[in-house]
Automatic annotation (TrEMBL):
It holds the Pfam family ABC_tran. InterPro entries: AAA+_ATPase (IPR003593), ABC_transporter-like_ATP-bd (IPR003439), ABC_transporter-like_CS (IPR017871), ABC_transpr_LolD-like (IPR015854), P-loop_NTPase (IPR027417). The keyword Nucleotide-binding applies. This is ATP-binding cassette domain-containing protein. Gene3D superfamilies: P-loop containing nucleotide triphosphate hydrolases. GO terms for molecular function: ATP binding. Residues 2-208 form the ABC transporter domain.
Length: 209
């Protein structure tokens, strides 16, 4: 479903970061492991179409993503890839449910309030749908981030250190929700972490050195 071939990236004035070839089956769940600075975020940015690698190719669902125009790539990302960042990136002036609606419109999909409610329900935050981001706790905000990432039923769900700013309880809940949501939507799940609390939950691992 996803394949990474001969990929390497070089930031200005730095050494190449090389990534081992990687074949990811549809629906599989992976942990991406590596020390801080080993290139986890770089690789996830490459896989989400945000960062074009200096070498190699990335194909998702048969599409070589860096051969798309930037407009096509934006739309491809909006429809196929859900991203959960280390810290929630929500729009502060919009309510929780409006933040999800706007994710539908960014992907050029029609507004679907039924889907918004369904996702908020599944993540246990429907009582916060009319609240604003600064009225929620860190753990609740991370649930909203997951809700926004899965709203368009992406084939690929990517999370970059989603538990590192959370306490043990919230970290376990967030991880559980990611796995559950990827299962429910048959989405491939990639979670980057250096958080030792997370390691046992996943069958597949890809390790950066
Ligand atoms: P990780 O997510 O595993 O901590 P990163 O992918 O963020 O690692 O970083 C990998 C390496 O690339 C590090 O040495 C980091 O300093 C460098 N790096 C990351 N982003 C940039 C950037 N925008 N410009 C220059 N160097 C960067
Ligand atoms: Mg990182």
């Amino acid at each position: 479903m996803i394949s990474l071939k001969s990929v390497a990236h070089r930031y200005d004035q730095q050494q190449d970061i090389r990534f081992e070839d990687w074949q990811i089956d549809a629906g599989s769940q992976w942990l991406l492991l590596g020390a801080s600075g080993s290139g986890k975020s770089t690789l996830l940015h490459i896989l989400t179409g945000i960062l074009k690698p200096t070498q190699g190719s990335v194909s998702i669902k048969g599409t070589s993503i860096y051969d798309l125009s930037s407009k096509e790539l934006d739309q491809f990302r909006g429809r196929n890839i859900g991203i959960v960042f280390q810290r929630p990136h929500l729009i502060k002036s919009l309510s929780i449910s409006e933040n999800l609606v706007i994710a539908q419109s960014f992907a050029k999909l029609p507004t679907d309030l039924k889907r918004v409610n369904e996702v908020l329900d599944a993540l246990g935050i429907s009582h916060k749908k009319n609240a604003y981001p600064d009225q929620l706790s860190q753990g609740q905000l991370q649930r909203v981030s997951i809700a926004r990432a899965v709203i368009n039923k992406p084939a690929l769900l990517i999370a970059d250190e989603p538990t590192s700013s959370l306490d043990d309880n919230n970290a376990a809940v967030v991880l559980d929700l990611l796995m559950q949501q990827s299962g429910a939507n048959q989405a491939t799940l990639l979670v980057a972490t250096h958080d030792k609390r997370v390691k046992d939950a996943f069958k597949h691992t890809y390790e950066l050195s």
